[in-house]
Amino acid sequence: MSAEDGKESVASHDGSDRTEPDESLNSPVKQLQVLEEVSNLLRRMEICVAEVERRSGKNAVSMQETFTVYLIETRSMDAVAEGRNPPPDSLWRRYSEFELLRNYLIVLYPYIVMPPLPEKRAEFVWHKLSADNMDPDFVERRRVGLENFLLRVASHPVLSNDKILYHFLTKEHGWKEMVYETEFQAKADSRLRALNATFRVRSPNKHLMEMKHYSDELQSHTSQLLRSRTRVADRLYAVYKVHGNYGRVFSEWSAIEKEMGDGLQSAGHHMDAYAASIDDILEEEEHYADQLKEYLFYAEALRAVCRKHELSQFELEVTSQDLVSKKQQREELATGIVRTFSFKGMTNKIFGQEAPEQREARLNLLEELIAEGEEAVKDKTAECEEYVERAWADVLHFKEQKDKDLQEALINYAHMQISMCKKGIQIWSNARDCFLKM
Asked: Other CB atoms closer than 10 Å to residue 156's CB: what's the count?
């Protein structure tokens, strides 16, 4: 899908053709690019999640619990540029605080494909890795994922300017109170209720609908890839570990051989090294799996942007339909001709028409309601068009980032597999040399 597609006209709520904004929505894209160059927080601040610490304490209901906290370190880029190396500012955050930050950003910036957090509990893991969220290896991978989330948000041309994000990085105390003062939860709750309602949009934006279908396919393909990778990793782990049997047999055999003993013993050591190497290999591979998982979760963020557009479009269509209904009532009241069945029309036929004063009062009230309805439709239309512009610009930004990241991850994964095979060939070459020396 290219940006040029935005020039095509789409059906509006009243059935007429409506052309997308000039420059095929490229204007917001250019604005994003300019913002990214000027406002990128990473140009002003170094950000890293440096350490992980396990703590114990009482939760909200005074029960003892064990939890993990992450040390966020920041340093001004101006100081680095001037050649100074001051100690970084640091503060501790829990995973739940990262969740609160992301939920706030989702509500405040519904048109942005929000960077995902790392998984709370491990999925698609090969059998040697623990799915326990307190497992040290898993906690370390989550630390890397949380740092990646902060870097994604801090490099985004819009999100990087948010004051709450800056306070999250720099103020250990009082940050949550600032978030709750924005009353974002009330907005989130009302939007959630609306999203859970059953509705059907008559004229959704074609491009965002295509992106919604694309996100479903992206999630499906990524899930299949991760499942396949898990099965391959399990089998590979078993094959490597079985090579430990070669090492044991060669070592025991060498004890009863005189001329062949040294060669068999050396070959056994090579087999033991080969069997042990799979642990480091698959832990490295897990890093690439985490990169794929990020885009598995990005697919849901992409769908959320499309769903919020559907909600805005649905509200526009309901407002438009209500306006059409009021105009029809005004026409029927002015002409005295009732075109549709109504309880009011039946009572007029039975008990007679309204008095002129009542009719005039109703007409005046309808005129006021119609004027308010026309203004509401105008506002809703502008809101929908602005949302589509902003969302489409961010979708293009996301696609460019996705193509680059996934290409890099898959290439590195291929290089890792090639390197692993070369190491296997080298091990067996060494074993062959041992056999030749016997």
From this structure: 29
pTM: 0.78
Which tokens is 338 given? 């009732």
User: How far is Cα 398 from Cα 112, in angstroms, rounded to an integer?
Assistant: 9
Average model confidence (pLDDT) across the chain: 81
332 or 146: which carries more pLDDT confidence?
146
Q: Side by side, which strands form the sheet with 45-58?
A: 45-58, 64-76, 89-94
- pLDDT tens figures, 338-347: 555 455 555 5
Examine the fold and report which residue of 163, 197, 231 is the final residue of a domain before the chain moves on: 197
Q: Which residues pair with 10 in a beta bridge?
A: 18
In angstroms, rounded to a whole number, what is the distance separating the alpha carbons of residues 289 and 226? 7
SS3 letters across 184-219:
HHHHHHHHHHHHHCCCCCCCCCHHHHHHHHHHHHHH
Confidence of residue 168 (pLDDT cuts 50, 70, 90): very high
d(CA 34, CA 238): 52
CA distance 327 to 317: 15
Angle value at C-alpha 75, between 71 and 81, nearest 5 degrees = 155
Same-domain status, 173 and 253: no
Please report, in angstroms and rounded to a whole number, the separation of the first and last CA atoms in the chain: 64
Residues 180 and 210 in one domain: no
How many secondary structure helices (H) and strands (E) does the chain include? 11, 5
Examine residue 173 and state whether it is found in any structural domain, yes or no: yes
Cβ count within 10 A of residue 214: 17
Q: Is residue 414 a contact partner of residue 239, using CB atoms and an 8 Å limit?
A: no
